[in-house]
Each structure stands twice: as structure tokens, then as C-alpha cells.
From TrEMBL:
This is Precorrin-6Y C5,15-methyltransferase subunit CbiT. Transmembrane segments: none annotated. The gene is cbiT. Keywords: Cobalamin biosynthesis, Methyltransferase, S-adenosyl-L-methionine, Transferase. Coiled coil: none annotated. It comes from the Bacteria. The keyword Nucleus does not apply.
Length: 200
């Protein structure tokens, strides 16, 4: 699948190409690349993107999985509309935007995922439990944390669910920026990426 704004087969859409809303987080390009690699998407993957925000992960996944189906779950109506506009910007048609709060709305999704990304949520452990119950065998689950409390909650939930082949990485990324007349390397906020598999 190609896009008017992004005609490449590689992921990594520049952040400025996405429409944004003030105060709504955007998963930075470098973090997106890391997350997509841990999701291990296939051309026909079914991905649940929970806490989809601006829709960056959903859009990138939709372009990478032209025969797949992406469910972008977002509780805020204005943010869900933002995701729709970003889908239009990139010409993707294989994203279903689900307005609702996880984990409650997950039971309404029509397809079982073979991969899921949890980028946020007030009840992270309950969300992980609900996703795990519907995740296909050999499916992948990926979650992010930006603070130690979330890191602990996700780690505990993955252990309780007996997730296999758990991997944990922390990003350390710097971008070249202009500050006045000088070029400096500015750090992005560190992000923990936790992933694992459902073997049975």
C-alpha cells in the first residue's frame, strides 16, 4: 500500500507529516521504529492499537500490513477524529477506529489480534489481561512505560499472565536540533518497551 505523503515501503514517517492536536502525545519516529520491530507484523496481521492517540502506530502498521486489519482504540472523541484525519492524510483504509475505554470496549472488537500494542490506559493490568485472553496463539504483545510505576505494573502483569520470551529495552535517543545559532543533540524522553509472546 502506498500513500500520497509516504511512498516508501520502509516505516519511519517523519513526525511533522502527521496532523496533531495540542496536548495529545505523538509517538516519536525513532520510538515507533522500535515498537514496530517488536510487534513483528505480517502482511495480514490483525493489530489492536490501544490508546492510539495521534494514530502514528496505526497508520504505520496499516501501510506495512496491506492485507491486515488495524483496530485503533481511543476513548476521546476529538482524538478519534484526529486519527481519522491522519488515516485520510496517508490514504489508509484498513483501520477501524473504535471509540471507547479499554478494557471494556475490547470485547466488542470483531477480530482476534495476532499482535497488540498498549500505549496507555488507566487500568494497564486489566487491559493486558483482556488483550491476553483474546490474543491468538503465537501472538505478540508490546507495551510501553515512561515511568517506573508503569514499568512495574506492566512487568508484574506479564509475569502473572506467564508471557513467554519477554524482552525489555529502554530507548536512549538524541536528535540534532537548532538552539539559537548552535546545533545540539537533544534527548527524547526515555521509553521502556516490553514485549513477549503467547505460545499456547
Amino acid at each position: 500500500m502506498s500513500s500520497p505523503l509516504w511512498s516508501y515501503v520502509t516505516p519511519g514517517i517523519p513526525d511533522h507529516l502527521f496532523e496533531r492536536l495540542p496536548g495529545i502525545p505523538l509517538t516519536k519516529r525513532e520510538i515507533r521504529l522500535l515498537l514496530l520491530s517488536y510487534l513483528r507484523l505480517k502482511a495480514d496481521s490483525v493489530l489492536w492499537d490501544i490508546g492510539a492517540g495521534t494514530g502514528t502506530i496505526a497508520v504505520e502498521a496499516a501501510l506495512l500490513c496491506p492485507q491486515g486489519k488495524i483496530f485503533a482504540i481511543e476513548r476521546d472523541e476529538d482524538v478519534a477524529d484526529l486519527i481519522r484525519r491522519n488515516c485520510d492524510r496517508f490514504g489508509v483504509k484498513n483501520i477501524d477506529i473504535v471509540e471507547g475505554s479499554a478494557p471494556d470496549c475490547l470485547k466488542t472488537l470483531s477480530l482476534e489480534p495476532d499482535c497488540a500494542y498498549i500505549g496507555g490506559g488507566r487500568s494497564i493490568k486489566a487491559i493486558l489481561q483482556s488483550v491476553w485472553e483474546r490474543l491468538q496463539p503465537q501472538g505478540r504483545i508490546v507495551a510501553t512505560a515512561t515511568n517506573l510505576e508503569s514499568l512495574y505494573a506492566i512487568s508484574e502483569a506479564l509475569s502473572e499472565l506467564q508471557v513467554r520470551n519477554i524482552e525489555v529495552v529502554q530507548s536512549a535517543i538524541n536528535r540534532l536540533e537548532m538552539r539559537g545559532t548552535h546545533q545540539v543533540l537533544a534527548a527524547l524522553d526515555p521509553t521502556f518497551v516490553l514485549s513477549g509472546e503467547k505460545l499456547g
